[in-house]
Write a structure and sequence with these properties.
globular, about 150 residues, seven-stranded mixed beta sheet, Rossmann fold, alpha/beta
Length: about 150
């Protein structure tokens, strides 16, 4: 499982969950500049400093993705047909909208915390939205030109 944790509080939630589920391999990326390149509190749980190439490689190979409800990495996960769980950051209206939108089109689930059990339960029920999403992405240039009336 792959994740992105925005702050140390979220990292602690992942660690608390993983203590109860050590059999699940979890890799998370975080923006903790003072941390080692890879921090492994115990086997099966790794926190990686941000690295776009490493993240893209791990995203391609992961079973599922969990993150705050930002836009870019969620779209990458949907494009790659990964089950997704989004945790909107409190007070970030756009993230609440992103999570609701994804939920409404059955592209993933939303939660209030990094309780990865919710994502584990969702994985077998996940229905691919990748073909529709890729078709929408492919229309991007035409939509852009139309909206700009070019």
């Amino acid at each position: 499982m792959l994740g992105y944790v925005l702050n140390e509080g979220y990292a602690q939630e992942v660690m608390d969950w993983h203590r109860q589920h050590p059999e699940v391999e979890v890799h998370c990326f975080w923006d903790k500049r003072e941390a080692d390149e890879v921090y492994e509190p115990w086997p099966g749980l790794s926190f990686h400093r941000l690295n776009d190439k490493k993240f893209a490689d791990m995203m391609e190979r992961c079973r599922a993705y969990v993150s705050t409800a930002g836009f870019e990495s969620i779209c990458e996960a949907l494009y790659l047909d990964k089950p997704v769980m989004m945790i909107p950051v409190a007070g970030h209206y756009e993230q609440a909208c992103n999570a609701l939108d994804a939920k409404l089109v059955n592209a993933g689930i939303a939660a209030d915390s990094f309780d990865l059990s919710l994502l584990m339960d969702y994985i077998p029920r996940h229905q691919s939205k990748a073909p529709e999403f890729r078709a929408w992405v492919a229309q991007g240039p035409d939509i852009f030109r139309r909206e700009l009336s070019l």
